[in-house]
Amino acid sequence: MTAGVVVLLVLAGLSEAAGRVLPVVAGRSGATRTGTAGLLLTGTVIDGVMIALWPVLASVLAGADTMVWSASLVAPLLLAAVLAFPLLGPALHGLLVVGVGAGLTGALATSAGIGWWQAAGWVALAGVGLAAAVTGVRRLVISLHRGRSHG
After folding, report:
1. C-beta separation of 143 from 99 below 8 A
2. What average pLDDT does this structure show over 76-103?
3. Which of 6, 7, 15, 130 is the most buried (most CB within 10 A)?
Protein backbone atom coordinates (compact mmCIF):
# COMPACT_ATOMS: atom_id res chain seq x y z
CA MET A 1 0.00 0.00 0.00
CA THR A 2 1.38 3.38 -0.94
CA ALA A 3 1.58 6.32 1.43
CA GLY A 4 -1.09 8.09 -0.62
CA VAL A 5 -3.51 5.20 -0.14
CA VAL A 6 -2.80 5.15 3.61
CA VAL A 7 -3.55 8.89 3.78
CA LEU A 8 -6.80 8.34 1.86
CA LEU A 9 -7.78 5.51 4.24
CA VAL A 10 -7.07 7.69 7.30
CA LEU A 11 -9.07 10.58 5.82
CA ALA A 12 -11.96 8.26 4.92
CA GLY A 13 -11.87 6.83 8.46
CA LEU A 14 -11.81 10.32 9.97
CA SER A 15 -14.67 11.48 7.80
CA GLU A 16 -16.75 8.41 8.59
CA ALA A 17 -16.03 8.77 12.30
CA ALA A 18 -16.91 12.48 12.24
CA GLY A 19 -20.19 11.65 10.53
CA ARG A 20 -21.08 9.28 13.34
CA VAL A 21 -19.51 10.93 16.41
CA LEU A 22 -20.22 14.64 15.96
CA PRO A 23 -24.04 14.40 15.73
CA VAL A 24 -24.06 12.32 18.93
CA VAL A 25 -21.69 14.66 20.77
CA ALA A 26 -23.59 17.76 19.59
CA GLY A 27 -26.64 16.55 21.52
CA ARG A 28 -24.73 16.10 24.80
CA SER A 29 -24.46 19.12 27.03
CA GLY A 30 -21.50 17.82 29.03
CA ALA A 31 -19.31 16.80 26.10
CA THR A 32 -15.71 17.92 26.51
CA ARG A 33 -13.25 18.68 23.74
CA THR A 34 -10.89 16.04 25.05
CA GLY A 35 -13.63 13.42 25.19
CA THR A 36 -14.83 14.33 21.72
CA ALA A 37 -11.29 14.23 20.33
CA GLY A 38 -10.76 10.82 21.94
CA LEU A 39 -13.97 9.45 20.42
CA LEU A 40 -13.05 10.94 17.05
CA LEU A 41 -9.55 9.44 17.15
CA THR A 42 -10.88 6.05 18.24
CA GLY A 43 -13.53 6.18 15.52
CA THR A 44 -10.94 7.14 12.91
CA VAL A 45 -8.77 4.15 13.79
CA ILE A 46 -11.72 1.74 13.88
CA ASP A 47 -13.26 2.98 10.62
CA GLY A 48 -9.91 3.28 8.85
CA VAL A 49 -8.94 -0.28 9.76
CA MET A 50 -12.37 -1.59 8.76
CA ILE A 51 -12.13 0.13 5.37
CA ALA A 52 -8.55 -1.14 4.87
CA LEU A 53 -9.61 -4.72 5.64
CA TRP A 54 -12.52 -4.82 3.18
CA PRO A 55 -10.54 -5.90 0.07
CA VAL A 56 -8.26 -8.10 2.17
CA LEU A 57 -11.18 -10.05 3.67
CA ALA A 58 -12.99 -10.26 0.32
CA SER A 59 -9.92 -11.74 -1.37
CA VAL A 60 -9.38 -14.20 1.49
CA LEU A 61 -13.02 -15.34 1.25
CA ALA A 62 -12.64 -15.74 -2.52
CA GLY A 63 -9.45 -17.75 -2.09
CA ALA A 64 -7.48 -15.23 -4.14
CA ASP A 65 -4.20 -13.43 -3.65
CA THR A 66 -4.62 -10.73 -1.05
CA MET A 67 -5.86 -7.49 -2.56
CA VAL A 68 -5.26 -4.03 -1.15
CA TRP A 69 -6.78 -0.68 -2.01
CA SER A 70 -5.49 1.42 -4.86
CA ALA A 71 -5.91 5.18 -4.82
CA SER A 72 -8.54 5.04 -7.58
CA LEU A 73 -10.62 2.46 -5.68
CA VAL A 74 -10.46 4.13 -2.25
CA ALA A 75 -10.84 7.80 -3.28
CA PRO A 76 -14.66 7.61 -3.73
CA LEU A 77 -14.93 6.49 -0.09
CA LEU A 78 -13.98 10.00 0.98
CA LEU A 79 -17.13 11.34 -0.63
CA ALA A 80 -19.16 8.45 0.77
CA ALA A 81 -17.81 9.09 4.24
CA VAL A 82 -18.56 12.82 4.07
CA LEU A 83 -22.13 11.96 3.11
CA ALA A 84 -22.43 9.78 6.22
CA PHE A 85 -23.54 12.86 8.12
CA PRO A 86 -27.18 12.07 8.95
CA LEU A 87 -28.61 15.28 7.54
CA LEU A 88 -26.66 15.07 4.27
CA GLY A 89 -28.11 11.86 2.93
CA PRO A 90 -27.64 8.35 4.30
CA ALA A 91 -29.25 6.91 1.15
CA LEU A 92 -26.69 8.64 -1.08
CA HIS A 93 -23.95 7.44 1.29
CA GLY A 94 -25.23 3.88 0.86
CA LEU A 95 -25.32 4.20 -2.94
CA LEU A 96 -21.75 5.45 -3.01
CA VAL A 97 -20.58 2.58 -0.82
CA VAL A 98 -22.32 0.17 -3.21
CA GLY A 99 -20.54 1.91 -6.10
CA VAL A 100 -17.17 1.54 -4.37
CA GLY A 101 -18.05 -2.12 -3.70
CA ALA A 102 -18.78 -2.58 -7.41
CA GLY A 103 -15.34 -1.21 -8.25
CA LEU A 104 -13.81 -3.53 -5.68
CA THR A 105 -15.82 -6.40 -7.17
CA GLY A 106 -14.35 -5.80 -10.62
CA ALA A 107 -10.84 -5.77 -9.20
CA LEU A 108 -11.48 -8.96 -7.20
CA ALA A 109 -13.03 -10.76 -10.18
CA THR A 110 -9.98 -9.95 -12.29
CA SER A 111 -7.50 -10.78 -9.52
CA ALA A 112 -9.15 -14.05 -8.51
CA GLY A 113 -10.18 -15.14 -12.00
CA ILE A 114 -13.80 -15.61 -10.89
CA GLY A 115 -17.09 -14.31 -12.22
CA TRP A 116 -18.35 -10.84 -11.37
CA TRP A 117 -21.38 -12.09 -9.42
CA GLN A 118 -19.30 -14.49 -7.35
CA ALA A 119 -16.84 -11.69 -6.59
CA ALA A 120 -19.78 -9.42 -5.71
CA GLY A 121 -20.95 -12.03 -3.20
CA TRP A 122 -17.54 -12.17 -1.53
CA VAL A 123 -17.24 -8.36 -1.45
CA ALA A 124 -20.76 -8.07 0.02
CA LEU A 125 -20.10 -10.78 2.60
CA ALA A 126 -16.83 -9.12 3.64
CA GLY A 127 -18.50 -5.70 3.81
CA VAL A 128 -21.45 -6.91 5.88
CA GLY A 129 -19.18 -8.89 8.21
CA LEU A 130 -16.87 -5.93 8.76
CA ALA A 131 -19.81 -3.55 9.23
CA ALA A 132 -21.28 -5.86 11.88
CA ALA A 133 -17.91 -6.11 13.63
CA VAL A 134 -17.32 -2.36 13.61
CA THR A 135 -20.87 -1.74 14.88
CA GLY A 136 -20.11 -4.04 17.81
CA VAL A 137 -16.86 -2.22 18.51
CA ARG A 138 -18.60 1.18 18.30
CA ARG A 139 -21.24 0.06 20.78
CA LEU A 140 -18.55 -1.25 23.13
CA VAL A 141 -16.59 2.01 22.94
CA ILE A 142 -19.77 4.04 23.56
CA SER A 143 -20.73 1.91 26.57
CA LEU A 144 -17.20 2.18 27.99
CA HIS A 145 -17.21 5.93 27.42
CA ARG A 146 -20.60 6.32 29.09
CA GLY A 147 -19.52 4.17 32.02
CA ARG A 148 -16.39 6.25 32.50
CA SER A 149 -18.37 9.52 32.20
CA HIS A 150 -20.89 8.44 34.86
CA GLY A 151 -18.41 6.79 37.20
Report:
1. no
2. 70
3. 15
Inter-CA distances, 60 with 27, 53, 138, Å: 41, 10, 25
- DSSP code at position 86: G
Half-sphere exposure of 72 (CA within 13 A, CB side): 4
CA distances from 5 to 2, 82, 84, 97, 130 (A): 5, 17, 20, 17, 20
Rounded Cα distance between 7 and 72, Å, is 13
pLDDT band at 150 (very low <50, low <70, confident <90, very high): low
C-alpha distances in angstroms, 135 versus 68, 95, 103, 132?
A: 22, 19, 24, 5
Output DSSP code: residue 67: P
Q: What is the pTM of this model?
A: 0.80
